[in-house]
Amino acid sequence: MKKNKIEHYSDKEALEFHNSNKSGKIEIISSKPMTTKRDLALAYSPGVAAPVKAISKNPDLAYDYTTKGNLVAVISNGSAILGLGNLGAIASKPVMEGKAVLFKRFADIDSIDLEIDSNNPEEIINSIKNFSKSFGGINLEDIAAPECFIIEKKLKEILDIPVFHDDQHGTAIITTAALINAVHITKRDIKKIKIVINGAGASAMACASLFRKKGVPQKNITMLDRKGIIYKGRENLNEWKSSHAIETKARTLDEAIKNADVFLGLSKAGTLKKNMVKKMAKNPIIFACANPDPEITPEEIEEVRNDAIIATGRSDYPNQVNNLIGFPYIFRGALDVRAKTINEEMKIAASNAIAALARERVPDEVVAAMGGDRPKYGKNYIIPSTFDPRLISVIPVAVAKAAIKSGVARKKIENFEIYSEQLKQRLDPSVTIMQGINSQVKKSQKKVVFVDGEDENTLKAAIAFKNSGLGIPMIIAKEKVVKERLKEIGYSENFNIEIVNSTIKEKREKYVKYIFKKLHRDQGLLERDCDRMIRNDRVIWGACMVSCGDADAMVTGNTRRYSQSLQKIKRVVDPRPGEIMFGLNMVVNKGRTVFIADTTVHEYPSSAQLAEIAISCARVVRLFGFDPKIAFLSHSTFGQPITSRTKHIRDAVNILKNKNVNFKFDGDMQPDVALDEAYKELYPFSEIVGNANILIMPGQHSAAITYKTMKTLGGAKVIGPLLVGLGQAIEIAPLRSSTSDILNLASVAAYSAGVINYNKKN
Asked: Which fold has domain 324-426?
């Protein structure tokens, strides 16, 4: 069974992450314009009186006139923080903010975290009851048992919005989906299987309950706590454990496991032994879900059985039981029909949808998003990946249908096909793109040289590249400085990362010869000039490493201007044969991705150059999984007004029309015409109007101004600039790039090194 390294970070780095820019991980922004006096009057006084009076007459109108319908409260008292225990309400806030981030990232749900400083169930219940009207749903998190049962049960009775304890039901839904498929693969009858559950906490009890809803007889489910099997007649059982007690003579896990079909572990590491696994039935189903270490490792299981279906709670093994597959999408479906609760029918519907998704053939676009692997339904693929982009268009639909059918929905959905398409638009495309790239990069394990190794953000990016298993980083730096930097950012000075510099005589001589051969005739350089370049310039040294095969890819920048880095690289590396060199930025805003070129190289490209840039853009964006739709931008639209600059753009379009290209394009047009579907009515003859995902700019100035304005004022996410057309896999980070920006460029460079043949034109 394949196992990869788990990502690790220093405590200092984690603290700095939470304190960088703005403290914490979430913020609230206005969804309406607030620029004029009229805007403010509409938003507050006197305009706000209209929705206030409307809601007072019909409280359901709060879904129409406020954020209630897309707002979830993430609530904890910090009494059972995962892996840490009872550390109190305020200590749980980083976790709850993280949960809110996941809601937004995966399902476009707004969340507010609320930490209640009490261990008294009645106080917590009253607090939530009193502010519940503000929210469309309540997500309970990290509350200890049995209080969590009391709180959830009472809230479900008194509130008319979904109340969901993810520790219980999220785990249960995903585990049930995995069980459905494991039973199917092993050709078992779910009504006849024998299940042993080690652990009797909230999640274990919820799993047992949902298993029964799915058809497993209660008498076939044996549950154990720290004192052993929960059996009828055992003393001092609380009401919740008593509901799971069965008639049995077994008293220990060793006794219960004999001939068991399924083992579910929600306990602690090491509790399931290899000799116990031997006693299980043919084709045993083993879900060892303790975190961070499972009850038994897959490697240990495989030492004694080769017929087991195995799942864990870890990302470094196949079949990860991860609540992230469930809770964002369950709430999405519940909110979209304004459900009064999340009932058993909705939970079962979610489990069935997740299970069914794993059985489907994974389409090409999902394969691209998952790094080129096409998982196939079987023992090592019984649960979809957390990054499967289909989750958001499948699970909410199933949940919404179940809510409507079971009578808890306030709102009907008339067309589920349209609803499914709307859900897809909520997914942040940049995440899917980078997940696919990173998955591919992990398999190739390219050597990437980080030129500015003494720069803190660059060093952090190189460490993250290594710790994330993306490849093999090398840094150009002085060893003494690196050791100091490592200690400053919270790592051991002996952290294992390769350091290269000009003191390495063999490589220095090799690179001097390479540069001298390349430059002495065209630039009149002497060998000692080349030696000086190699000794003193890290960018030149890094470019030589890639050119001479000592590294697969390179990332630089951040400490100097882009143009300076580019000029140095161009002395060492030629453009890719038959291609034009230019900068391409990937810009993601409000769930939409557009590519902008040329952002870095050509100040004012000719018409012919613009046409060539468009051709190269189409090739590149296809590597990222997009169907290219290219708009040539101008201050004009289809010749109005006609100026010399307008003609310049129109000539580029005409040049492209005379070439045999396999993508859609049009121009000249203004950016709003290219991006806003409202203009389709005005220009029905153009397939690009309102649909463009590649914007060819008339000049470098306009391209740079556009993407930087979008990033700074519009809050857009920017990946790049990507250096297209260079003869090696090299990327340049702009000044003041973050660790994440540099890491993304390193991944792109490593990806390019694997998918592009730099010796010929694609």
From this structure: Rossmann fold (3.40.50)
189 burial type by CB count under 10 A (0-12 exposed, 13-18 middle, 19+ buried): exposed
Confidence of residue 63 (pLDDT cuts 50, 70, 90): very high
Domain spans in the chain, listed from the N-terminal domain onward: 1-36+428-579+725-762, 65-161, 188-321, 324-426, 582-722
How crowded is residue 743: how many other Cβ atoms within 10 Å of its Cβ? 26
Residue 591: band (very low, low, confident or very high) from pLDDT cuts 50, 70, 90: low
Mean pLDDT of the region 181-199: 96
Whether 473 contacts 408, CB under 8 Å: no
CATH T-level assignment (fold) for domain 1-36+428-579+725-762: Rossmann fold (3.40.50)
44 is catalytic: yes
Least confident of 253-267, 356-370, 555-569: 356-370
- 466 vs 32, more confident: 466
Residues 6 or more apart whose CB falls under 8 angstroms from that of 422 comprise: none
Q: Residue 3 above 70 pLDDT?
A: no
Residue 364's pLDDT is 60
- The DSSP symbol for 678 reads G
The per-residue pLDDT for 704 is: 85
Q: What are phi and psi of 313, to 5 degrees?
A: -95, 5
Helix (H, G, I), strand (E, B) or coil at 616: helix
Q: Choose, from 3, 5, 12, 44, the residue flagged as catalytic.
A: 44
Rounded distance between C-alpha atoms, residue 690 and residue 679, angstroms? 7
Q: Concatenated DSSP letters for 101-147?
A: HHHHHHH--EEEEEE-----HHHHHHHHHHHGGG-SEEEE-S--TTH
When pLDDT is averaged across residues 66-81 and rounded to a whole number, the result is 95
Would you state the pLDDT for residue 75? Answer: 97
What is the pLDDT, as a whole number, of residue 8? Answer: 57
Pairing of strands 582-589, 592-597: antiparallel
Q: Which of 511, 500, 504 is nearest to 472 (CA)?
A: 500
Assign domain 582-722 one CATH number from 3.40.50.720, 3.40.309.10, 4.10.520.10, 3.40.50.10750.
Answer: 3.40.50.10750
What is the SS3 assignment for 662?
A: coil
Q: Is the pLDDT of residue 497 over 80?
A: yes
* Residue 433 and residue 625 in contact, taking contact as beta carbons nearer than 8 Å: yes
**Three-state SS for 670?**
coil
- Model confidence at 363, pLDDT cuts 50, 70, 90, reads low
- What average pLDDT is seen over the chain? 89
Nearest Cα to Cα of residue 717 among 589, 602, 582, 610: 589
582-722 has the same fold as 1-36+428-579+725-762:
yes
The per-residue b/e assignment along 625-647, b for 16 or more CB within 10 angstroms, e otherwise, is: bbebbbbbbbebbbeeeeeebbb
One of 3.40.50.720, 2.60.450.10, 1.10.10.10, 3.40.630.30 is the CATH number of 188-321, namely 3.40.50.720
Task: Give the separation between CA 461 and CA 467, rounded to whole angstroms.
Answer: 10
Residue 412 — pLDDT band, cuts 50, 70, 90? Answer: very high
Does the active-site annotation cover 480? no
At the second CATH level, the architecture of 65-161 is 3-Layer(aba) Sandwich (3.40)
Q: Are 96 and 81 in contact (CB under 8 A)?
A: no
- Is 629 in contact with 663 (CB distance < 8 Å)? yes
pLDDT for 432: 65
Average pLDDT over residues 264-284: 95
- From the list 318, 424, 439, 364, the residue with the least C-alpha distance to 751 is 439
Catalytic residue chosen out of the listed positions 68, 99, 156, 194: 99
